[in-house]
Structure formats: structure tokens, C-alpha cells
Amino acid sequence: MTQIIGITVISLLFALIFKSVNPSFSIIIAVCAACILFFKVADSLAGIIESFKNLASGFENVNNYVHLMLKTLGIAMISQFIADICRDSGESALAGQTEVVTKIIIIAMIMPLFEAVIKAVSGLLI
After folding, report:
1. Which whole-number Å values give the CA distances from 54 to 8, 51, 66, 91, in the listed order?
2. pTM of this prediction?
């Protein structure tokens, strides 16, 4: 945890210093720092994904839903990263559009899951 805080603080200081000199360097530093932080926690993320897969392995249909959930989570995290980069670059409209498009993609992806829940609930009511 202290490494993550150290990388973040040092990157922030460098980004602030270079922002006055050349704003492009500031964005590059922020993106590089975000990538370094992601790779620092990638092992933990792999363990979480493996735990989900082990949990779902005992059930036939659940495995597909867990895969869908992990895929949706990945898309949401990547789009949040991209939207934050857009905001840091001063392109808040593009960041907003990225978030809206991502929400539409996620809704389209989870429709089969939503249909399965509705069928299960309607089966319980009948």
C-alpha cells in the first residue's frame, strides 16, 4: 500500500511541475503512473478473478453469468480510466460521451442476464 501511495504522490508532484512547462507531459506522466499502478495490483486482480471462477465452477449457468459480470466490470473500469484521462486533458464533453456509450454497451451486454432473472421471478410467481 505504501508503494502505491508513493507512486501516486510522486507522479502527482511531477505532473504538477510539468503542467506549467508543458501540459502534454503532465498527461503522459498521469497515464504512465496509472499503468504502473495497474500492473502493481494486477496479481491481486488475477486472484480475485480466479476466486470468482472457482466459485462459479460448481454451477452450469452461473459460470456464464460470472464471465459476463467480469467482462462488464473490465469494460467499466477501462472506460472510467479513459474518461478520467479525457477530463484531465480538458475534454469533459468527450469524457461524458465515453461514459454514456459505455453504459449503453453494458446494458446491451447484461440483457440476457436481465431476461433470465425476469423468467426466474415470473416462474416463482406462477
Report:
1. 33, 5, 10, 41
2. 0.69
Burial class (CB in 10 A: 0-12, 13-18, 19+), 26: buried
Q: Give the CA distances from residue 23 to residues 13, 15, 17, 110, in Å, rounded to whole numbers and listed in that order.
A: 13, 8, 10, 39
Measured between alpha carbons, how far is 89 from 121 in angstroms, rounded to an integer?
Answer: 46
Identify the sign of the CA torsion 117, 121, 122, 126: positive
- What gap in Å lies between CA 32 and CA 2, rounded to an integer? 18
pLDDT value at residue 60: 67
For the chain (126 residues), the mean pLDDT of every run of 10, in chain order, is 85 85 84 86 79 73 78 90 86 92 93 85 74
Q: By three-state DSSP, how is residue 90 classified? A: coil
Q: Measured between alpha carbons, how far is residue 20 from residues 8, 13, 24, 91 in Å?
A: 19, 12, 10, 18
**Contact present, 8 and 37 (Cβ < 8 Å):** yes
**Cβ-based neighbour number of residue 39 at 10 Å:** 9
Of residues 70, 53, 82, 81, the one with CA closest to residue 109? 70
